[in-house]
Each structure stands twice: as structure tokens, then as C-alpha cells.
Amino acid sequence: MNVDAIANIRHMTRKERRQRRLALELRNKNTLLALIVPVMIAAKIMVAYVLPDKYFYDNNRMLRMMLGTAGDIAWSGSYEIAADLFRSINFAGLETMVDWSICLGIVFTTLVVFMILRADAPDFLQSLFILATVGLLNIYIFTIGKDIIQFAFFLAVYVVLVLPVDNSLIKVLLSCGVLYYESTFFRAYYVMIAALIFAVYVILEFFRTRRQLGFVSMTIIVLLLIATIYAMMVTAQTIMPDEYQQIMDLRAGYDIAFGDSADSATLILNVIPGENLPIFMVNYVINAFRMMIPIELAMRGAFYLPFFAFQCMVTAYMVNLLRQINNINEPTLFLALCVFLGYALGSFIFEPDFGSWTRHEAATFPVLHLLVLNQYQKVPLTQEERLLVKGLDS
Fold first, then answer.
1. 369 assigned to some structural domain
2. How far is CA 57 from CA 205, 261, 264, in A?
3. How far apart are CA 227 and CA 234, in angstroms?
4. Number of folded domains in the chain?
5. What pLDDT, in 10s, does the model give residues 25-80?
6. 146 found inside a domain
7. Most buried among 153, 262, 277, 292, using CB within 10 Å?
8. Domain membership flag for residue 2
9. Are 9 and 385 in contact (CB under 8 A)?
10. DSSP 8-state code for residue 120
């Protein structure tokens, strides 16, 4: 940016600065929207011609179950439910995973565009994150599989969050209801995520009334969230002993269950051996940090670096919002943070590997993009952006 342009900005009135900033934001949003389709096409080319079949093992299993040719590799439970669903909507007679990937990619990427149109204009870093997520969605989520169903449920939560209803309690209860409904027939552990979302809402609602949130307040929030998990486990131990024991044995069983599948290379196994509740809680905290900042994933090779960067950005955006909850005046954004935090707290228990964690996290995009595309997450990188922001704040 040349000296004359900088001087022009310095001499602008507040109104002129605002108009310049709005024009810059409009340009950024239009650029982001223009790049979404090329990113989708590039992702579909990777699905069809670049990535090996091992990364779509579950998708191909689902396809064969839908076609009735799975044989011994057919699984029951949520796999069977998903296969039946895809069979019932297969009006076009799709027979390959690439066919499903292209069709679902077009439909759901269009929905993504509408969500971005409604959101705040992005800055450069936000645009990069959204484009990376669109690529991830079109590779792993927008295809035949269970993750697209999870995306649909979070899309329903998004609809609840943007409803023109002023009562936040009603919205959070409706959001919990959507995920509880999912737990009744698809993923049973979502009943815990629904309960955690409400618990997070209660905790954060208390702290957001404070004028300032310092290190002590943030530490107390984190400790309360961990205490919530402990309380839920103690309750489950008493009233649901079978489910409690399943959770305690969960990670020990992943090594056997995954075997030689593609995800076995990135399994999240407990660091400390043992089966009692105190050890479980220590492992829970360790695994939470491992999942939020997956350094070990980055150490596995260059292929995993994009996933490492994606997760670090998600964590940074989430933490940045959490420390500003007393300044967030947008109820939708605050509730989106509660939903995502509740989801993350449950996922730290159940996610078997880093690959599944990244895919499932991307499938929360309808809620996740609300956490990213807002004024609280903007990072002015260029001198023009910094001058415009400074001028508006002065």
C-alpha cells in the first residue's frame, strides 16, 4: 500500500472510513464465494483420482450395504440405519461413491454458500479457514456415509440458532432436543453431548455477566467444565453401570476394533493405563489437549500437516471466543459457542482417532462457521485493514 493511499485513509472522516471498510469486506466475501466452487471441484478430483481407497473404506462399506452387496463387511447399528436412509433417497440410481460424492457435494456446498452469505464478511485468515473446511467437507463429508447425517443434524441446530426468537434458553433447549433426537436412533452418545451443551450454557451464562474475565476466571471455567464431566461419570456409574463400564473400556477396545484400517495409524489411545475413574479423568484431560493441539499428528508426516493446521485454527477460534464471552452481544454466537463446546467435551471421550475427530468436527460446519465468521475473530493483517479498524475505534 503506497504512502498516498495511507495518507488518504488517515484524512478520511469516520463515515468515509466505514464506507471503505464495508467495501473491503464486500470484496473479501465475494472473493470467498467465488473460490468455493473451484475448491469443491478440486476436492472432488482428489476423491475420484488422487486419494487412495483406504481413506474411503467406511464410505465404500456404506455403498455396498446400500446396494446389498456388502456380505461379511456389513455392519449393523448406525451403519445399517445410514445405509437404509441412502437406499430410500437414491432416486437417481447412484451406484458409485464418486456419483454420491458429486451429487451430495453440489447440494450441500450450495447450502454452505447460503450460510456464508448470511454470515459476517471474512478477513484473510477466516477466508482461508472456510475454504480449507469446504475442501475437507467435499472430500470426507459430502458423500455417502454417516458424517453427512451428522452434518444434517447440525444444520438443524443452525436453523434453531438463527430463529427470530429472543429467548436464549428456548433456543439452547431446542438445540439439545435436536441432538437428543439423533441419539435415539443414530449415535447414542449424543444424549451426553446434549446434556453437556446445556451444562456449558449454564456455566458460561453465569460468567458472561462479569465485567472482566482474567486468567483466574478462565481457569475456573475450565475446571468447572472438567468437573461437569466427572459429575456425569459419577452419575452414570450409579444409574447406568453398563454404559459407564463401556466408556471406561472404550479406548482400550479401539486398538482391537480398528485393526489394520486406515484410521488405526492415528488412534487416540490412553497415555496412562488403568480403569478407575481418577485415571480416566487424567487421561480425559490429556486427550483433550492432544485433540485440541494434535502435535503428534503433525509429527506423522507432511500429509497430516493440513489437518494439524485446521485443528489448531479451530482451537484458536474457540479459545478466543471463550475469553470474550462477557463482550459477546450476539445471542446466536454465544449459543453456537455453547453448542460447539458441549460437542467437543463429549468428543474428547468418544472419538477413537484423529482422522475421525477431524471429519466429525468438520461436519459441525453449520455451527462452527458461526464461531469463525464474526467480528470478534477478525485479525487485520494489511496496513489498510489496521488503519481502518484503528480509525473506527478512535
1. yes
2. 42, 8, 12
3. 10
4. 1
5. 889 899 999 999 999 999 999 999 998 888 898 899 999 999 998 887 778 888 89
6. yes
7. 153
8. no
9. no
10. P
